[in-house]
């Protein structure tokens, strides 16, 4: 049709053209796939316009995986860009004189011509379409999962993830639109696949026991036992890929009732106190020893401030906030699986993986105590809620230690290597005894008859108050001198008066009666106190002669 334009004669004879059938477009001219043969100019232009509308309404389908989106080409911002050129080509025949029309007819007979409809593609429109419809298309890669049930491993295969490559998909769509709209456009979105890190093939290598360790908590109360069961379950089933590190604290926290924990004994500033999650250090300790036997890399481990009773010195691992933690790293080329559980009154951790160590090689660990540190004299703390003179031991003394742990490697039963795993110091801590307030001094009034004097001497008789608990020298605690008494004060009154005891120590009740009034009630044995024994003189000044001391919690109850 360009040749038509080169020879076009713009001059025309409207009068001659009016009603002249020769003005209809001859055979051989089409726009796209639409023939314009026999149409007038107006009819041809209407046909072309309808054809373009049809093209812009053609569906464009974009698929991504199992998802597909279909929209009209015009909705993607596709527009007709050569309208002027098409109109000029269609109008050429009518706008020519008779000679020129004849030449056009002959040319079209020899070489039919189709004028293409050219469209323009909006890059912004395509990007908006793709991102608006495909941004949520895709799926995350899912790792294979392994669990241990009834003594067997069960593996769920991995799922490959994918996401739409927006830039590549937009480019593919633009190229498809650029090839024309005569045919339905189908474009497959370009996706990027993401392979999961953990595959079934990798997990299938987990078959062998690399190390296992158990500790006993038979002396623990219900709350501490619950904490051990809850905490072990939070670590159970963890898989460490090669080079991956597990933090005991991160697995177990937060230490709240909402997370399943209860209040139980733990160490704090050299004392035993109740805290939510008390006892979880036995979890970290058991895991630590299993990891040693499996020869995992111990990335972080600290000992307790004081010794514990469920393992030997230097075999423990404490958890306290983030500054004391147990962290273990998988040094192998294959994954390891951590199993943790409680059964009866025992907690057990087992590390599974692929055994690569020689069969004739074995390891063991030995605890060595280097020094013992005396805890010193008991620490007394006033507790005004206790009965006067009562003494209750709330914490046993803890002997301090310096120790170290040895790793011993043998091959065919012969020691080949001995290395120090850790050297630790455990603080000494004195026993802590709560004491009640001092026993009040109860005055006793006795009458003493004075012989009459001679009349006129002006001497009258008077009575003298004698306080129970005066010493032989006649010095009463806080009172003036008075005659001695034969009976020593009770254990409770002795603590207040500080006097030396007499030949025999009566019970608290007897002493009170001898004072002329009832003494303070003696709490029963269940409260951790009892009355003084027969030899009250053994009590030092300022202390009760004797008392029953309530035992502190055993080390197994503590962290």
From TrEMBL:
Residues 453-559 are annotated as: Disordered. Residues 461-470 have a biased composition (Polar residues). It comes from the Bacteria. Residues 360-439 form the G5 domain. Keywords: Signal. Residues 472-516, 530-559 have a biased composition (Low complexity). This is VanW family protein. It comes from Candidatus Caccovicinus merdipullorum.
